[in-house]
Amino acid sequence: MPRPPEPTPTADQRLTDLFDRSISYLRLSLTDQCNLRCCYCTPKTLTEKLDSLELLTYEELLRVVGLAVAMGIRKVRLTGGEPLVRRNVTSFIERLAAIDGLEDIRLTTNGVLLAEHAEALYAAGIRKLNISLDTLRRERYHEITGADCFDRVWAGIEKATAMGFAPIKLNVVAMKGVNDDEFLDFGRLSLSTPYQIRFIEFMPMGKGTTWEKGRYIAATAIRERLAPLGSLEPVASGRMEGPARVFRFAGATGSIGFISPISHHFCDRCNRLRLTSEGKLRSCLLTDRETDLKAIIRAGGNDEAIRKALIATILDKPKGHTLAGDGSGNCHGQMSRIGG
Ligand code: SAM
Asked: Please, are residues 179 and 172 in contact by the beta-carbon 8 Å criterion?
């Protein structure tokens, strides 16, 4: 019997996967390049980088985002690599912000170039920042990231705070024997500042990072370490908020978030789709299945072909990832290319 023809995707087709998860959030890795070499993310020995021709151009990105937004994407996060090292990124953001129906654009940055880009980012429409900061100690910052940039990053955070960026979330990858003696200092920071301190479980990703079994700490153990500061009260999070479980110490200005991809999967409510710096669509950070969207675009693919690729990737979204705290699982991708 002949197979029925595949339905043609329409511009207003909603993005829902096979497990009834509605996909409304697209993360774009703008570049695989980074001005830091964080021990948990980019191996010090990583010398290969993508040729700039391998990156999707801003025009190509705008086309994909425009189509995705027409199909139901409401939130976009710019990440990488380090998004602020890509040339003319703020004019790209201005054009992104002009896409009708895109409600929320956020940026994840290491903060090294934040102070110099803060005004342009604000003018382009960014208000919500995630900033990686795994230590509050200058020398340790140098050890973890390979660069003596703590003061620059802190100056960027202070400037962004004074300018009114909000929320500002500080991403702390929790690593036993590296920064676990600072959990209380980070907890105290949430008492007096408006920041959301987000402890992220160390994920065994990519080759050549410092990940090893003994470095992983589960979110529950991190939480126990914060107990001397008092009890943590749950904070309700909004529709657009991510997978962090958020709490607050009584009377605190800021909050504490726990992101536990390993110990406490949030796959059942994952609403994300990713576009890697090489132009591959990926429906799960931690599962190595990709659709080569750049090949489709550069072969002259029309809008319908792009919509079909978006839908096919979403229909291939796994129910859950299989990565475990002992390093087993099926994810070998490099964080900086996929977009963390
Ligand atoms: N350059 C930007 C930055 O530093 O924030 C954006 C890219 S970075 C890959 C994004 C996030 O990925 C960082 O906040 C970091 O916490 C997280 N990340 C990278 N490798 C990780 C790992 N192995 N485990 C947990 N989180 C990781």
From this structure: yes
- Cβ of 132 closer than 6 Å to ligand 1, yes or no, is yes
Question: Separation of 279 CA from ligand 1 center, angstroms?
Answer: 19
The whole-number pLDDT of residue 52 equals: 86
Residue 123 lies in a domain: yes
What pLDDT sits at residue 330? 56
Longest dimension (CA), the chain: 69
Please name the residue ranges forming H helices in 2-113: 58-70, 89-97
Between CA 204 and CA 189 the distance in angstroms is: 28
Whole-prediction pTM: 0.93
Range 224-252 burial, b when 16+ CB lie within 10 A, else e? ebbeebeebeeeeeeeeebbbbbbbbeeb
What residues of the chain score a pLDDT lower than 50? 11-12
Domain that holds residue 325: 25-338
The CATH number that applies at residue 178 is 3.20.20.70
Does any ligand 1 atom lie closer than 6 A to the CB of residue 84? Answer: no
Any idea which residue has 């991403």 for tokens? 171
Residue closest by Cα to atom 1 of ligand 1: 82
Per-residue pLDDT, 85? 97
Alpha carbons 175 and 211: distance in angstroms, whole number:
9
Number of domains in the chain: 1
CB 284 within 8 A of CB 318: yes
Minimum CA distance residue for ligand 1 atom 22: 203
- Asked whether 145 and 38 are in contact (CB, 8 A), the reply is yes
Provide the pLDDT for residue 194. Answer: 98
**Structure tokens given for 197:** 């301190």
Nearest CA, atom 14, ligand 1? 132
Task: Give residue 333's pLDDT.
Answer: 76
Residue 305 falls inside a structural domain: yes
Please state the φ and ψ torsions of residue 200, each to the nearest 5 degrees: -115, 130
CA distance 87 to 254: 33
Residue 16 domain-assigned (yes or no): no
